[in-house]
Design a protein that fits this description.
alpha/beta
């Protein structure tokens, strides 16, 4: 016996539940996730920030357009951020400022004394220049994910956990999708499988897009009393330091190729980050309270892959480290393209096109 659905979404992280929610209007939607709980991998391990200065042009447009939704949801909390450039890296800070000042008009260039006034943790002489993003916020990832999950259920969608897709075949202009326990028949499959998206495409006989899962480690350490915002992020992405309730959440910001799977923290990278952070700040980190790893998946141009790769097979992948902050606008955009509609006007006005997201775009 097969279970019919108008859309089958593969993946129950932020990507899958957000686009699934946006597709439920007038359609029956099934979301499949291979794990026992949703958001076990990248979504559940994200230290998500909302940074309008972060990512490629398309990513920034989607991020800016997502702010109103996340604000209305109450999922944003202030976390001003300093992007710091060490000696000889002031030009890199200037370049970032030139790229983002029109889209994120609150940003400002700061010299070292001004940056240290904003964040007294900075060690004297350790940086040359900083870009200050005062409107940056942190995102309550769980709240956003659960908003979509509850919305899916309220709209009658089906969510299956422990439902690994093990095979697929064309059927009546659509697909038969086999999991470990059930078979679904659908005209449209949305591949929102994160690090596993290329593997899933192979099950459908669809060419991969060259997705590269990259491991990133994170750790928590103690901080002096009174430590607070802003967050510190290295302009060359060698580390970040995010104050968090009397402690600091830090990362070496590494991007190490990793097979899809349950990523673990790299202790060598954490040690490197501690050295770099201690050079730039007065934190004096010596011990780590906890540590973990996660995967961020990119294609070569580090832009999302959204669009049909074959009849009835829709890519919604390659969201890298930006997936949470741009989820609302990207989900609306993806759902519109699934339905054959134009990119939503509020995103299109910022220059985003379907061609820029298409899996068929030039590599």
């Amino acid at each position: 016996m097969t279970v019919p659905a108008d859309v089958v979404v593969i993946g129950g992280g932020m990507a899958g539940v957000s686009i699934g929610f946006e597709l439920t209007a007038g359609r029956s939607v099934v979301v499949l996730d291979m794990e026992a709980t949703l958001a076990y991998h990248t979504t559940g391990r994200s230290a998500a920030m909302f940074l309008e200065s972060y990512g490629a042009e398309e990513v920034r447009a989607l991020t800016v357009t997502s702010r109103a939704f996340l604000t209305d949801l109450g999922a944003l909390a202030p976390m001003p951020t300093l992007f710091v450039g060490g000696p000889g890296r002031g030009d890199a800070v200037d370049e970032l400022y030139a790229q983002v000042r029109d889209l994120a008009p609150g940003v400002a260039l700061l010299d070292e004394p001004a940056a240290r006034r904003q964040q007294p943790l900075l060690r004297p002489g350790a940086i040359e220049r900083a870009l200050f993003e005062p409107d940056a916020t942190e995102i309550d990832v769980h709240a956003v994910h659960q908003h979509y999950v509850h919305g899916l259920r309220e709209r009658g969608a089906t969510i299956r956990t422990r439902a690994r897709v093990i095979g697929a075949e064309p059927h009546d202009g659509g697909w038969l999708v086999r999991t470990t326990d059930e078979t679904f028949v659908t005209p449209v499959v949305v591949n929102a499988a994160g690090a596993w998206a290329d593997h899933v495409a192979g099950l459908f006989g669809v060419a991969p897009v060259g997705l590269r899962p990259l491991r990133r480690s994170a750790f928590v350490a103690d901080a002096p009393p009174g430590t607070g915002a802003p967050m510190i992020a290295d302009i060359d992405d060698r580390y970040y330091v995010k104050p968090e309730r009397g402690r600091v959440l830090c990362s070496p910001s590494e991007e190490t190729p990793h097979d899809p799977g349950d990523a673990r923290a790299d202790e060598v990278e954490i040690a490197r980050a501690i050295d770099a952070i201690n050079e730039v700040t007065t934190l004096g980190i010596r011990h780590v309270r906890s540590q973990w790893g996660g995967l961020r998946s990119f294609v070569a141009d580090r832009r999302p892959v959204v669009g049909y790769g074959a009849p009835g097979f829709f890519w919604f992948a390659g969201q890298g480290g930006y997936g949470i902050q741009m989820a609302p606008a990207l989900a609306r955009t993806g759902a519109a393209l699934v339905r054959g509609e134009p990119v939503p006007a509020d995103v299109a006005v910022l220059g985003l096109t379907a061609a820029a997201l298409s899996p068929a775009r030039p590599a």
